[in-house]
Amino acid sequence: MANNNRNSTIDIIKAVLIILIIITHYSWTVEQRQNVVFPLVIDMAVPIFMFLSGYVGAMSFDKKGVDSLAKAYSLHQIIHKYIRYTIPYLIFLVVEFLIPTITKPKWSKSEMLKWIINGAEGPGSYYYPILVQLIFLFPLIYFIICRNNKYGLWLCLLINLIYELLKWSYNMGDFCYRLLVFRYIFVLAFGIYMYRGSINILTSIVLTVLGGAFIVLTRYGIYSPRIINLWTGTSCIAVMWVIPLVAFAVKKISVTLYPIEIVGRASYNIFFVQMIYYSIDRSGLTNSIGSWKLELLIGIAVCLILGTVFYFIESNITKILIIKLKV
Fold this sequence. Notes:
Number of strands: 0
Helix content: 55-70%
């Protein structure tokens, strides 16, 4: 661990995850995405980010002595997190609007505002809206876990499943479903629970086998679920296969690799860069290179480098703003 008590393993995991996100947004064919590495590894990137959000969020509440809903929903807490999430997003929006080749809506002001609220343009555009919702949902999940321990964790799984049932009952569309944080209730709760305690080996094995079997059965056409029918591969059941493994790594493995850690810390900024990168016309690059492997490596390098530079610039701007606003 680093001297400042920062969990360096988490930063390294985040670095790996953001690379997986860059990889998954490459223009793969349907046949290529059938490779087992996609559903079992690459598609797990965002759910694992949500798990880490739960874990780190619980750590933050613990260190700050947040022991009531009143403190959790204090203006200081809300504004601080909102600024942290929003400043990078606003800078991303400005850059995106300045690039002429990126499609932008020619709508009324209200439609444009809706587009911005929905995450703008680029793969993974749902992520910022989900983080904003997380500011308000997280305290509720946190105190469910704090007051009920493992029973709170299974209660959150039940709530997640009830949400899936309601989504199915009311025929919610894919666009709306992807923008709502509720699909991540269980994985967030798992992150909070793992910060506060642990699960036994038998439970870990059961979850891993159940999640892995669900992914294989649904991904390769043997079973088509009626209720968990949207984003099935990253549902609360599917993520069970990988979460115990990540929890073990976070709690039991201590690794320090500073350059990789920096990439992990910059992962949020890198995420916005890859949204822009995949939104621009890259046909010239594709035609000139002629190798998908080299093109993918170039894309990863460009996103990591520019995203890290973005992080160093933005983090200083955000720190200054937070100091001035005294939040």
